[in-house]
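Figure 3 (text version): structure tokens given as input.
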């Protein structure tokens, strides 16, 4: 069985459960509302006969639409199969040195998986006691930095100055900011792009644009960095984005009003849910995302509550890990879903 030594063996990332029946699904930070109406139309209008052709490998239209929406040039935009694909390409492209890449000890748990699969050395910088980023901890020799802002699964956002200081102190490293949840709160690092050529921002259409099923993510950076990303992409798979995804993404970006209304609704529901959780004795970190990281009242273990909720067909996320295991991560659903959630919590707590 000598071949085992030649196999790239990895410990994979564990995605949240996707039960294939109707449940109150508050476990993977999806959007509870449908995507913009133009998305369905755009997908429907793709003629089956055209599917015999390859899609545009350059993803030009979608990149141009994103560039226009965010005040950039299309050459500053990269798109991929969900931000997981974009992040993976970023790890492969930008972290090819010998020095360790730095990211927080509590953050999106895919970062260390990509580092492992690509054999990238890394070190974790512990979050402070209050789960906030320790900016000073990133002021050391490194081969790159990954920041998730707002962070997951805490939901906490750091001000732009924190990101700016880190980017400024490590001019020889790529500083990647994962802004998967930025549309729900916090300050984007976008205005910093001009000043810091080492900055790269990654985002997704899975949450605020309700397209998790389409798999669309994107990155913003300097023309130079985006060119390096494109070169690596074209060295792995030229046609990452299929025609339906390209059309759906374009339609979603073009409907700004629907996007803003959807995000606003989720934010209102989030703030209401915070009040309900406080009333029921939960403690939570002050989320600026579409989820709340909350600790049940004394006497109720997060792991037990997770199971009890599941018995009522309410799915939330539980992380059996140090510093996380006392909490549940609860995605913001519709008002009706959150009312059901609160009602079941009341029953369990009674
Ligand atoms: N970054 C963060 C912080 C996330 O929570 C997620 C969702 N799991 C992603 C990236 C990836 O999302 P997607 O691939 O759907 O764009």
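Below: residues designed for each position.
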């Amino acid at each position: 069985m000598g071949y085992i030594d030649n196999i790239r063996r990895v410990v994979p990332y564990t995605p949240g459960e996707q039960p294939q029946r109707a449940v109150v699904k508050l476990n993977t930070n999806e959007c509870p509302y449908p995507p913009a109406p133009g998305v369905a139309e755009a997908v429907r209008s793709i003629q089956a006969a055209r599917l015999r052709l390859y899609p545009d490998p350059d993803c030009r239209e979608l990149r141009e639409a994103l560039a226009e929406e965010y005040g950039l040039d299309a050459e500053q935009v990269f798109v991929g199969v969900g931000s997981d694909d974009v992040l993976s390409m970023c790890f492969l492209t930008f972290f090819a040195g010998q020095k360790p890449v730095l990211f927080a000890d509590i953050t999106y748990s895919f970062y260390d998986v990509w580092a492992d699969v690509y054999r990238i050395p890394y070190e974790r910088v512990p979050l402070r006691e209050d789960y906030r980023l320790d900016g000073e901890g990133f002021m050391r020799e490194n081969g790159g930095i990954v920041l998730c802002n707002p962070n997951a699964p805490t939901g906490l956002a750091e001000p732009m100055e924190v990101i700016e200081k880190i980017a400024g102190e490590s001019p020889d490293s790529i500083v990647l900011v994962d802004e998967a949840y930025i549309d729900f709160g916090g300050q984007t690092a976008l205005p910093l792009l001009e000043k810091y050529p080492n900055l790269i921002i990654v985002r997704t259409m899975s949450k605020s644009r309700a397209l998790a099923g389409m798999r669309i993510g994107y990155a913003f950076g300097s023309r130079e960095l985006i060119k390096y990303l494109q070169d690596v992409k074209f060295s792995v798979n030229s046609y990452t984005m299929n025609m339906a995804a390209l059309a759906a993404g374009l339609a979603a970006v073009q409907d700004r009003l629907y996007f803003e209304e959807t995000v606003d609704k989720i934010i209102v529901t989030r703030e209401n849910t915070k009040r309900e959780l406080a009333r029921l004795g939960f403690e939570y970190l002050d989320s600026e995302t579409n989820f709340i990281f909350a600790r049940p009242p004394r006497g109720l273990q997060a792991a037990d509550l997770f199971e009890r909720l599941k018995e009522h067909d309410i799915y939330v996320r539980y992380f059996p890990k140090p510093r996380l295991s006392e909490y549940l991560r609860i995605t913001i659903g519709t008002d009706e879903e959150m009312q059901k959630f609160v009602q079941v919590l009341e029953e369990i707590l009674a």
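The mean pLDDT is 97.
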